[in-house]
Amino acid sequence: MELWYTEKQTDNVGITCKVNRTLHTETSPFQRIDVLETKQFGRMLLLDGLVMTTEKDEFVYHEMIAQVPLNTHPDPQRVLVIGGGDGGSLREVTRHPKVRQATLCEIDARVIEVCQEYFPAIANALRGNPKAEILVADGIAHIQERPHYYDVILIDSTDPIGAAEGLFTLDFYRQVYKSLKEDGIMAAQTESPFYDLNLVRKIYKNIEQVFPVTKLYLASIPTYPSGLWSFTLGSKRYDPEQVKEADIPDMPMQYYTAQIHKAAFNLPKFIDDALKTL
Fold it and tell me: Considering 86, 108, 151, 156, which one is annotated as catalytic?
């Protein structure tokens, strides 16, 4: 008997993967956590039935949410990751040569523990990394406790439902601004422009109200809804499109390059038009 898992990405579209077996399932105080072993993408993490990451394509998301803002800031010594309990964004942050302190603030301890067990290559910075500080806490409360502290803040959240809903509000972005230093940068995952263009535009407009430099950029992630994913960067001072390729560290990557850094901000016309719409 063949086993398949389907994530319903919209009311009319789903992604279906052939499954070898279920490795783990539980309900934490915050959400349901499942780990599947799939034929196509290797191990897959689901939170409340939604694909969060897979072994095969995780590098795209984690490199793009982290390396773009890190290489936009000239000296990103203190970095915060809100969410990101799988550890992939933290891994990318700790790899950057200029980072001195990388703080992960994840509300659900069980996500951290499950990913350490089942995704060791993604979660390798969650234990024993001298740069890393791991906090099991509410990210919204945490940034209020550290004003003018971080150089870069990454918002590696789930979809804007449940516990993550507060991480997409105008008030939250204002708190992020206050937690950043005078030249700080934030970047957030901001959903699918094919399936959620109105939401992408709303998030962009909220961030634009707070940060003088606001730019949306894209990456191709096969297991995320539509395969095209957006990130939004808010900066107090630095423009990511003005970064010199020669200033980007030569680090081993699988998706991100100096050329991709620039190209990711060249938006398809339908997205660019939507962002210009009030």
Answer: 156
